[in-house]
Write a structure and sequence with these properties.
Strand content: over 45%
CATH architecture: 5 Propeller
Number of domains: 1
CATH topology: Tachylectin-2, Chain A
Helix content: under 10%
Distance between the termini: 12 Å
Structural class: mainly beta
Number of strands: 20
Largest sheet: 8 strands, mixed
Order of helices and strands: EEEEEEEEEEEEEEEEEEEHE
Number of helices: 1
CATH superfamily: Glycosyl hydrolase domain, family 43
CATH class: Mainly Beta
Radius of gyration: 18 Å
């Protein structure tokens, strides 16, 4: 194994009503040579997620330097697509210095469990607060995404925003409980805000006993692209996976569960290691990830033994 797990960094501790537990779908951003900011979703007692951050030492991410005293992005107003929770999609620093955030907003249903569609917000104060650019989704319900359209990677490349996202079109009942079925798709946009969803492309489908595969985190490498994703099986084995591509469109999946980080022996990640997110910082390469219950126990990290290959 080329990655060494370094343990739990942070989980919400209940200092406020809005951050009682968890830190879901971590998104790390290098703020300076010395500081990594990790954005994630923290939950209240009702399980509703709001987006916050922790700042950590770039050379020792176990050392928490600072954390947000209020949500950087709160839930939407009543009736909006994000009224019942927001989690991270991706965070990107723009050429003008602003920071753009793609997020996933949740709305509970009456005859179905929930809908989850993608919004966009930007920060002009170095990531302390974010303002929605639209009150409606940038990726909404479509023929290829009836219930879920969740952006998880945005890369601006050759004048085009390249987006990898999860789309859901149905529900699978396991032991009498509904779970969303989803797959991974790709779409492009000139401005990263307006999309023609009829032109999206399928990347990866669930296989065999899998019924959902999502949270695609794509990193560009010298040889192409690497995607880290999470999938679930009918036996409820929530697992991290990996795929490779030369163009970001056609993917070759690695058929090995948890190829980089295994679930551990610590209480927080003894059952799963999921939602991996890669960051290169100076001489270090990190994977930030969630443990049990899809982030309910917080965020931890692993470090690569020697920097060089992804």
């Amino acid at each position: 194994m080329s990655w060494v797990k370094k343990g739990l960094i942070y989980t919400a501790g209940g200092e406020f009503d809005w951050n009682k537990f968890g830190f879901m779908t971590p998104c790390p951003v290098l703020m300076s040579d010395d500081v990594i900011r990790i954005y994630g979703g923290v939950r209240d007692n009702e399980g509703v997620s709001r987006i916050a951050y922790v700042d950590v030492d770039a050379n020792n991410p176990n050392k928490v330097i600072n954390k947000s005293a209020q949500p950087v992005l709160d839930i939407g107003e009543d009736g909006m697509f994000d009224e019942n929770g927001v989690i991270l999609g991706d965070v990107i620093r723009l050429s003008n210095g602003n920071i753009r955030m793609y997020y996933v907003g949740f709305q509970l249903g009456v005859k179905h469990k929930f809908s989850a569609f993608s919004g966009v917000a930007e920060s002009s104060d170095d990531g302390e607060t974010f303002k929605r650019l639209k009150n409606s989704p940038v990726l909404d319900r479509s023929e290829n995404s009836l219930f879920i359209s969740a952006i998880h990677t945005a890369i601006f490349e050759n004048g085009v925003w390249r987006i990898w996202y999860a789309t859901g079109n149905g529900w699978r009942y396991i032991d009498g409980k509904p779970y969303p079925e989803y797959e991974i798709r790709y779409i492009e946009s000139v401005d990263g805000i307006s999309f023609d969803q009829s032109k999206s492309k399928l990347c990866i489908l669930p296989e065999d006993d899998e019924y959902r595969i999502g949270r695609p985190r794509v990193t560009k490498t010298d040889n192409g692209y690497i995607m880290r994703f999470t999938y679930d099986t009918l036996a409820k084995e929530y697992t991290a996976g990996r795929a490779f591509s030369s163009d970001g469109l056609t993917w070759e999946r690695e058929y090995k569960p948890n190829p980089e980080i295994q679930k551990g022996f610590e209480e927080w990640d003894s059952e799963m290691a999921c939602y991996l997110s890669y960051l290169s910082s100076g001489d270090h390469e990190y994977l930030f990830y969630n443990g049990n219950d899809m982030g309910a126990t917080g965020v931890g990290y692993a470090i690569k033994r020697s920097k060089g290959s992804l």
